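// run 5 | inverse folding | seed 20
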């Protein structure tokens, strides 16, 4: 095909129209301000055709918001909480900047500018938002809407450790349980002693408790879905389905909790923990009206419920429990998650490690070898004496 110079009607300026044919023989065109840009576009289109990677540029005219909506709806296996998080990122951080842009008009500079506009947010948050953007653009490539994702070569802030979670001890846990009150005290121990997530505590039913065998089975959870609506379902992975041995003390605490509520094994579908009106727990209400005030009361204002789970993993590792057992109890699919994310070093463990190292490697230091006193005999010299032959002469 060809490049044709034309005079634009609205301002009389000369522009350059590229006319090409797609593989089916249908003609398509695009206009550029300069001949150089037109020639570059023509060459690129022909090169893509030759490599077999050509994508109809007209398909890239679809608005970004439509592709994002299609991507959100395209994974029926995504869990409610993950879908809600992704939808919030798309709505609040991607659509305001890119929503009305055609997909083909988005270039790497636009993506870098968007990431730069998130400056001030935590690095991990920025990376999560960028991850959703790249997933949408990769979906567009897989759908043959664009030939190449513009999310490439983008500089991201380096992830930092940030705030170090506090690992509660036995005294702090007891204070927290007391502050939560009789209705929710046992939840604190389920989080710390068994490592249960809040969603697993909220979805726990009476049928999951075996008081004779002293076990607890995790098979359901309550999480936040789209719009903050609570949804119920199985754990997020097969490893999350697990049966845990429960210490007698905690089993007794759960029995006392159910007795106080007048709930028995005859009510297998009853929730172990309920809201003030007797219905299932709602996360936002629990966090605002119960958890936050209790934590503030005992001087742990920055503590999250998930930090109890971190305390659980830390004690497991520090106590010498093998990684496989810790991984199974925590419901992790990957043991690296058990060690890398949750097992936080503690001051006590650090001191114990220092003591063991000293015992092994510092049993004989220069200080242990006392310097000779004035009354100690001088060591003999190997040098010959001026008064006679040396006794150390080789024989």
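// decoded
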């Amino acid at each position: 095909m060809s490049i044709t110079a034309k005079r634009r009607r609205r301002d009389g300026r000369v522009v350059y129209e590229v006319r090409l044919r797609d593989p089916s023989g249908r003609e398509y065109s695009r206009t550029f301000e300069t001949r150089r840009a037109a020639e570059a576009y023509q060459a690129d289109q022909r090169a893509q055709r030759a490599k077999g990677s050509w994508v109809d540029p007209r398909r890239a005219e679809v608005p970004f918001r439509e592709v994002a909506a299609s991507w959100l709806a395209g994974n029926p296996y995504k869990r409610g909480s993950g879908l809600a998080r992704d939808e919030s990122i798309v709505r609040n951080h991607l659509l305001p900047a890119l929503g009305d842009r055609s997909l083909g008009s988005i270039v790497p500079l636009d993506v870098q500018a968007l990431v730069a506009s998130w400056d001030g947010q935590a690095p991990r948050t920025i990376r999560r938002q960028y991850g959703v953007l790249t997933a949408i653009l990769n979906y567009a490539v897989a759908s043959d809407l664009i030939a190449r994702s513009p999310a490439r070569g983008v500089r991201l802030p380096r992830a930092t450790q940030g705030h170090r979670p506090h690992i509660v001890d036995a005294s702090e846990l007891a204070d927290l349980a007391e502050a939560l009150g009789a209705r929710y005290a046992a939840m604190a121990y389920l989080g710390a002693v068994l490592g249960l997530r809040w969603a697993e505590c909220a979805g726990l039913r009476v049928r999951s408790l075996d008081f004779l065998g002293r076990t607890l089975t995790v098979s359901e959870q309550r999480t936040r879905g789209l719009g903050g609506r609570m949804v119920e379902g199985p754990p997020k992975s097969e490893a999350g389905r697990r049966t845990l041995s429960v210490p007698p003390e905690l089993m007794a605490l759960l029995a006392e909790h159910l007795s106080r509520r007048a709930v028995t094994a005859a009510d297998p579908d009853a929730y172990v923990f309920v809201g003030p009106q007797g219905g299932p727990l709602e996360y936002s209400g629990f966090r605002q009206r119960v958890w936050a005030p209790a934590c503030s009361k005992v001087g742990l204002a920055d503590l999250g419920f998930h930090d109890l789970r971190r305390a659980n993993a830390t004690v497991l590792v520090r106590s010498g429990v093998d990684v496989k057992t810790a991984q199974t109890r925590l419901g992790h699919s990957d043991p690296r998650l058990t060690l890398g994310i949750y097992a936080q070093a503690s001051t006590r463990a650090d001191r114990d490690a220092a003591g063991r190292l000293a015992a092994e490697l510092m049993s004989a230091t220069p200080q242990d070898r006392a310097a000779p006193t004035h009354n100690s005999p001088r060591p003999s010299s190997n040098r010959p004496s001026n008064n006679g032959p040396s006794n150390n002469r080789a024989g």
